[in-house]
Structures
1.
Amino acid sequence: MWQKALENAIAKTRRNIERFGDQFPHVSKEDKYLLNPNTDWTNGFWSGILWLCYEYSGDEIFRNAARKTVDSFRNRLDHHINLDHHDIGFLYSLSSKAQWMIERDPKAKELTLAAADVFMKRWRPEMEILQAWGPEGNEQNGGRIIIDCLLNLPLLYWAYEVTGNQQYLEAAISQADKTRRFIVRGDDSSYHTFYFNQTTGEAIRGGTHQGYEDGSTWTRGQAWGIYGFVLSYYYTKNPLYLETSVRMAKYFIERLPKDHVVYWDFDAPVTPDTKRDSSASAITVCGLHELLKYLPENHPEKAFLQEGMEKSMHGLVKSYSTISEPDAQGLIKRGSYSVRSGNSPDDFVIWGDYYYLEALMRLDNGHKGYWYDRPQGMSE
């Protein structure tokens, strides 16, 4: 039932290859993607879109374009271009790791492991966290974690499984545990960020960078939590991660608006001008699809979560996709980068397009994205 939407997304991506050339799409302005030469945290999502399109269609045009992006990511790592942040997982899981999963190219595996080592430079042993942004010791960001990091952790889990190096695993588990303890609130909502004392590791306070206010729940952050915790469950089998994903998912679905695509923050006042974040709903659909695989049929929330996933996906396709706009560059409208700062608050965002396409692939043929993979010779 999702074939029309998939075919439409693939046709748009084919046209975008020529439009974008060697550049990478980020967010849009006046319905056209702003491009960069692989310098932003979002560039891996374009690679992931290309690999998904190749796997669905088998068309070499997508594989050739995806391989070129991996070459660009190799150059980015070699020259350490804007890698002083935790989004290394977003960059390399969807580019070189995806290539490894699809083609078993040993050079792609080597590049991905090198990226994991760059990510590990974010580890701060005094606090037992992976610092989100900025240099070590930075006054503003030195002790900060953010919920987005949960989707970067699969790079470290994967690196552990490939190498057996416990340091990758221990860092990922510590980060997931800290996020669960300090970012997820008692009512199953979430902070965007949390601060720790850089010397003692003492917890200081929760806050936000993207949300409506420090105590609100930024919907994309909640979505990262839903998907991120279930991926940590996949790798560790820690039932607390699965439970947390279920709780956060229930909170999310209980607050869906009538068209089933969320506003940018659950606590922002709703007016005719309140911005949406279609990317948050797309991420959540992917997370719910993964989550439902691990819940027994008699789980008390399974039917509710299943219905919420289906309603969210139908809402995205019906009211937010660009199916009826053949010349559109983006796949889903009304994504928000940062409503708080006025930065692309109601536009195409490349991560929204990626997760929308991953969600379609999941629902159409059971694709699992590029967040986990078992090395050859290991059973899943």
2.
Amino acid sequence: MKEKKIHLLLAVLATGIMSFAGVLIETAMNVTFPTLINQFGISTGMVQWVTTIYLLVISIMVPFSNYLLKNFSIRKLFIVANLFFIAGLVIDLWSPSFSILLFGRLLQGVSTGIALPLMFHIILNFTPMHKRGTMMGVGTLTTSIAPAIGPTYGGIMTASLSWHAIFLFLLPVLAISLVIGLYAIPEMPVKKTGALDIVSLLGVALLFSGLLLFLNQIGSLLGLLSLAVGIVGFLIFYRQATRGKNPLVRIAVLKNKVFVLFLCGFLVCQFLLLGISFVLPNFIQIVLGKDAFIAGLVMMPGAAVGAILAPISGRVLDTFGSKKPILLGLSFATIGWIALTLLLRSPILLGFVAGHVFYMIGIGFAYSNLMTTGMNLLSEEEYGDGNTLFNTLQQFSGAIATAIVATIINLAQQSQSDFIAATVTGSQISLLVLLALLVAVFIASLIHFRKEPKLG
């Protein structure tokens, strides 16, 4: 019955375009950071808030969307999200100051925070199980490929026109998304289930805000106070999640250790996607002296490979199970990441292209399949909570990754007199930290699949 009420592929496409646009801007703005620093007279630590505030808002909105999906129709939510995004684009297109730019990014974060869980909600509730891998591959294409395409898009716009053009050319894209969504997503009645847990939402806001401020103010009194705020937020959220009548998220799904493994693997992949999208374009501009266009162009081949592999990898999972694509993907990603880390000391543009392509082959096979495999372990009643955890932590992990690499590079730049050498050192340390996480996930997955050879 459900499949007859909604044009599934078009509905996923409409919400996917909106999610894609959100994540695209996320990394497209990274290549503009040197330009924004000069134009607005701000530091490296300050400019990364263009990305961080966006991801912070998404991290708060996604748990809230779990409540929205239970109480409002998917059509209404789609329209609201789309209009918020368009408003954010118009504001950033005009933005005469850094604070107004951040406000526009905030509105875009609200939109993407609704669009991402909405897209996966449609996939999980309207797609037959035997086709879910393929559809999840199409869905996660937005969050895995957009970070890689973003620097290319941002570089072309900034070098040929202006960073404002990044927002201008997405306005017709959002208009197309709106038209498709209005056609494909019908008005469907919703049985309202429970009231909004305001206390939980407050806890989430304090948790994510405190931790991000801490990462941006490490070593200062403000940083310690921010950490304390984050801890208080976690305690509030945890108490409500375990004792509240209508918690935003039921964290009982985290008792499933295998689900947690795939969730962690998925989050590490997100760490890598956002980390390299910050480090590599800025490295190419600052250290190699290339413009934003070249910095973005280096990322394009890898993005194309990842785009091709995302839906294909889902079909591989539907056909052969989860073990082969996940382990193959993590292997390729590890090799490519090691190559990128080593190349920072002896930079070669074509070497960066090759390393990034190899790494994106791995992401193409592993990323969406980690989420699909994790979600397949849950019951239908747990889909909303699992979906919320994946999307909330995905965005927050992206914010953490951006904050961590920006902080490491900033600290290195401040500790050495040679700005270029300090940028090289900071960039390499950043990639080594993320490499350690990737290796840990790969080893844990290898151990799991050896114990459970019949899984998937």
